[in-house]
Amino acid sequence: MDYSLLQIIEEEVLVRLSAGLLHTRVRLVCKQWKDLIDSPRFKSLHHKYHSGFKGGERSPPIILGLECNGSLAKCNPFGQERDKDWIVINPLPELRFYLLSCAGGLMFGRITSNKSYVTLNPLTGDLKVLPPPPLEPLPSTAIMATHTSRQRYWICISYMRVVYLYDSSVGIWQEVSLPEGWKHHCYAKAINNKVYYYCRGLDHVDTGLMGVLSLDLESLSWSTEWEIHGYSTPSRCCIDFLVSPALEFFKVTVDSMYHLSRLDAASKGFVEEVGLPLNMKEGMSHVPSCCYKDTIVVAGPKQLEVLDYKTKSWTTHKNKKFSRFDFLFLFTSSLFDPKH
Domain named F-box: which ranges (predicted)? Predict the structure, then answer.
């Protein structure tokens, strides 16, 4: 496609706008702008502009909170709005959609009426029905990742020593086994084309072995990021695992407080970083968390806690509409088409 100077200028201007504004308003102006915004080239440029610079994303993500009954809500603790409370959303208003994971502006979930599994862009409404996965995924076992080009995505479902992997460029599920001596320990986080698993040794190999393994989704190769031998299970069991954009690893434990411990590479041990008092009488057996830049967000009972990891200071946002969430997800709208 030959580009005139006018087209180049239009592209340079439009690429700076948010995905929401582009899709809901700008692409309706004329056919030329619609074709430009819908083109794979523009979608790739838009993603690179909004995420590929030194400061990180130009538009901060929202947080999605998932209740055990499937109800979904959104909150914007990183934006400039004064109201930080949750708003109930339904990505597919005409259907009952249960979210399992999300990444790159896409959602992976189940349509409960016909039990089909789909990837969905809730902004554009684009949807792709996936082949049935080998086993029924849960939010605790499913993880979604996207390529930096936003033209390819993966879905991983883990069970014991196997990761079932869906690659959008291939369109089928395949099996990837964990390295010898390891089994999955329920927690996984994705950053671009890698998934980080919090694992432990097989019982007959080394019950005191704990570690973080990463799976490169393009090469399907494993790497050991961190490990510890001789580990004995503490009184506070791990309930969550976090990975920061700087590839720092944390485990979360809870008693009457929320405890955040860093997985230290130098000492090959756990270094407790910070604690937060929580009212566990509200029925909280699980306290979901997520990382964004230098902040860690915790969905406590009837409140949202935001930790500035550099200063170790907490900010509290009262939650008037929901008492608890079981899972938290970071989500940023995009023009990513799940069918491509």
Answer: 24-44
